[in-house]
Structure formats: C-alpha cells, structure tokens
Design a protein that fits this description.
The chain has no helices and eleven strands. Strands 2, 4, 5, 6, 9, 10 and 11 form a seven-stranded mixed sheet that branches. The protein has a four-stranded antiparallel sheet with strand order 1-3-8-7, with no helix packed on it. A hairpin with a 6-residue loop joins strand 5 and strand 6.
Length: about 130
C-alpha cells in the first residue's frame, strides 16, 4: 500500500494557475502508474490526467486537454498536476491515485487504482 498526500490547492481567479503535488510514501512509487481525478459537489468523480511509471506517456481528460500537465519525479516520490487557464468549472476536490505495484501503464478508470489520497480543494472564482 502507498500513502498519498495532495497539496497545492486553493482559491484562484479564472485564468489563473495552480500546481498540485502528490507525495507518496510506503512502498515503491516508481513502479506504478499514477493519476489525478476530481469531484465537484453533486457530481461523479472524473478522470483528469494520468502518467505511466516513467512519466514518458500521459493521457488527459477532454475537459483539461491543453491546459493541464501531469508530471512525476520518481526520485522525490512525487507526482504533479500543473493547471493553467483555470475555469470556474474546474472547481472540485482533486485526488491523486496510484495503480498497484507493477501496474506501470496508464489507467483512466477509477477501478484500476489501488490507493487514493484524501484530496485537495481547488476553487476557481469567476
């Protein structure tokens, strides 16, 4: 099991930027694909972005393509989500997730992720 702690959320105006971080501990981080999901009040959790174990392959949800960038630093056991051109509809709790050890390829569905952080809130004002 890996423990995940998100940080970097906050309140930002539309058009602004935030960088989320997800620090991992507890097991080998580098041998797992990682993802970001988000959940707005009254809505289902949705896929945002994912990266493979090396950070050489990435996938994004349609609503964030061209604005968000996922990256990882395996030496620091951290995955990042750079968010630019933020919109009010990006307001949500953002969750970091890790696939099981050895699952190195990208996953876009929640069910393939084994460990989850508690989330960090992002609020974008208009």
């Amino acid at each position: 099991q890996v423990q995940l702690v998100e940080s970097g959320g906050g309140l930002v105006q539309a058009g602004g930027s935030l960088r989320l971080s997800c620090a991992a501990s507890g097991r080998t981080f580098s041998r797992s694909a990682m993802g970001w999901f988000r959940q707005a009040p009254g809505k289902e959790r949705e896929f945002v972005a994912a990266t493979n174990w090396r950070g050489t392959n990435t996938v994004y949800g349609d609503s964030v393509k061209g604005r968000f960038t996922i990256s990882r630093d395996n030496a620091k056991n951290t995955v990042y989500l750079e968010m630019n051109s933020l919109k009010p509809e990006d307001t949500a709790a953002y969750y970091c997730a890790a696939r099981p050890l050895g699952a190195v390829v990208i996953g876009t569905e929640q069910r393939v992720y084994a460990d989850w952080g508690r989330g960090t809130q992002v609020t974008v004002s208009s």
